[in-house]
# Entry
Amino acid sequence: MLELKGVAKRVRGQTHIYPTDLTLEKGTMNVLLGPTLAGKTTLMRLLAGLDAPSEGRVIWDGRDVTGVRVQDRGVAMVYQQFINYPSMSVYENIASPLRIAGQARDEIDRKVRQTADLLKLSPYLERLPLELSGGQQQRCALARALVKDAGLVLLDEPLANLDYKLREELRAELPRIFQKSGAIFVYATTEPEEALLLGGNTAALWEGRIAQFGPTLDVYRQPCDIVTARVFSNPPMNFTSVRKDGHRLTFGRGVNAPADGVFAGLPDGDYSAGFRANHLGLNVHTGSAIELPCTVGVSEITGSETYLHLHHGDDRWVALLHGVHDIPQDSEVGVFLETRYLYLFDVAGKLAAPAAYAMAA
Amino acid sequence: MSVATDVLPATVARPRAAERPRLRLAVSYGLLIAYVLFLLVPIYWLVNMSFKTNTEILSSVSLWPATFTLANYGKIFGDSTWYMGYVHSLIYVAMNTLISVTVALPAAYAFSRYSFLGDKHLFFWLLTNRMAPAAVFALPFFQLYSSVGLFDTHIAVALAHCLFNVPLAVWILEGFMRGVPREIDETAYIDGYSFGRFFVRIFMPLIASGIGVAAFFCFMFSWVDLLISRTLTSVNVKTIGVAMTRTSSATGLDYGTLAAAGVLTIIPGALVIWFVRNYIAKGFALGRV
# Structure
């Protein structure tokens, strides 16, 4: 079990990580999700012991390891860049942590071959890392991280520099690899989909703070505030201001919806309404859907889906629609939204009422 | 008529189009040959002289030796004050190269990896050591090394050359080290490497070409330096430079032997260039030089 207690990092007067408490359990996959500069890498370096925190303690299995050298931490790390030892063969690369640890020769050989099998590197053991493709190089780095049976494996956007196909392939392999070791895995990514596919727990990071930490699906369905909701949605969650008045929700441009169900108990006042891009529709006009008048900006067509950029007053929205919809710019459309997909956040940005569909799931 | 006008320009144009690249080729070959001749003439003249007798050198100008002789070389290899000059020079040059690179490696690593108080100023200040002519240091060096009893030793010359070579080596190596991602260092530490083991096993192979280039420059500077090595040596350590300035005697200047000694002086440098030529090419591309 790894605990951060009030860990903060400041560099030259700038705060990179605000005081943070975090507990990671053994045998779990933990995703650090956040945009670039959110502090994912800084947090990872603190977890690894590459940087010392400005304040706070790092506790590993009840032992304070805050000042312990990285060599003595028993961690493994994989970077976004493909970092291998260029002058050593793939075999020697994978074997190097074991050689340093002074393990027996046949023991090393057994472990290297086993790990190479797991990562499909067996045919390339005698080559140099730079003679491999990008995916194979990163697999070599992963193998070196896994072979030493570290208690903590840190993966800092390991798939970001790979092409799409390889990324899919390795991402599917990772949970399988992860299940075989009992280590704490920490995986940093900027992509919400990646967090959802990897499962486990997710910590949403924003500007040096952990906005929310919990099981991935819970964080996705019930973001505790606007920041988490924005980080954990791709495209980002759409927002508009809404006013609750008795049994009525009034949207900015005079559209009304009944404030029933989860919204009924809320005090009257101003709220921010949030909803995901895929919950907007052009023609799903059921009885409970509300129609919001918008002006069309750009339509991005990806083949089977359309990202429709919308202007709703001063709000900028994105709607993710199935199929190809080539709607001319500046045309007026009514988009439909079921109120059960609506999250309400109070003026301070905290979640006031989760969407009804998320409660049911 | 229309056929003729169609054909005529084509037939005129064809040979001209074919001639132009040939002319271009001839010009570029001509320039290249002139350039090589220009570079090689002094060296050829030296080699030419080294196979002539003194009387021939002094009497007439000839493109090749009329009476071919190996006597000049025989004199050098037969006289220990001559050939020991090369040995002494090679000893202090090797010492200097070794010391300079060994000292510069950790210094360059510090400059490339850490930021510390005044690091940029210190880096620049190191380079300023190269800005003064060597002659400036001749007198202070002579005084200093005499007073500590190092005068007329190999190590004295080797250490004196360090003043010029260490900054250069630091500068070259820092450029190469900067090209190695810091993550490799960190990965090695995470894997459990101590600093020393990481540096020797992983880092040095990565900057091998940089070490080659740095060693080459140290070697060349130390090998071609005449002034400081002459100032700091006298009897026990007679460098080749000293030996060469000793050739004037009662019978006049011994041109033939001097030329032969010159030819032999070029050889070690040429050999070193031959061995590090691939590194140099890489070095000029990757490093800062």
